[in-house]
Write a structure and sequence with these properties.
Elements lengths: L2 H19 L2 H13 L4 H7 L15 H14 L12 H20 L4 H9 L8 H9 L2 H23 L3
Length: about 170
């Protein structure tokens, strides 16, 4: 499968998985991992707390971008034993994740969950507040956030392929 097909598959899976997993961070990670045939069950579990700008506070990095960065790292980062042998390897990961972040910010105008929400909905929601969570769910977030997770997954696959020279 070529790069375009892999990127399309990751995009499609992310949009599909959002309806299943709801959290953007684990959605993007799962979509990229499944598109590339990677085992990521433990990482998927670790991503749950990063959803909604970390613990659904909205203050931190958008979960879709966090999931994309995790997927890029999963594919490109050296394991712990290899760090001493190739200490510069992490910089290849930083460069690839920065490319994703740059595309994300250029397209959505922001990188934090709340700022992305403002761009999509004209306001942000405190997802820890039951009333605001209900408003968010009723606002059609799933349809608006599909683009966010889909593009983040697509850009992660493209960054991985570029870093691997494909």
């Amino acid at each position: 499968m070529g790069l375009r097909e892999l990127a399309n598959r990751a995009d499609r899976l992310a949009r599909e998985y959002l309806h299943k997993y709801y959290g953007c961070s684990q959605t993007v990670l799962a979509a990229v991992a499944d598109a590339l045939g990677l085992e990521a069950e433990q990482v998927f579990k670790a991503m749950v707390g990063l959803a909604g700008g970390v613990g659904i506070t909205g203050w931190g990095t958008c979960g879709a971008l966090a999931g994309a960065a995790a997927a890029v790292s999963l594919c490109l980062a050296p394991d712990r034993a290899s760090y001493e042998q190739d200490p510069e390897a992490r910089f290849r990961v930083y460069q690839a994740t920065a490319r994703v972040a740059e595309k994300f910010k250029a397209h959505f105008g922001a990188v934090t969950c709340w700022e992305v929400q403002v761009g999509l909905f004209g306001r942000h929601f405190d997802l820890r507040d039951p009333e605001q969570l209900r408003e968010f769910l009723d606002s059609g977030f799933i349809w608006r956030c599909e683009e966010v997770v889909g593009l983040a997954a697509r850009w992660a696959v493209e960054a991985i392929a570029e870093a691997q020279g494909e």
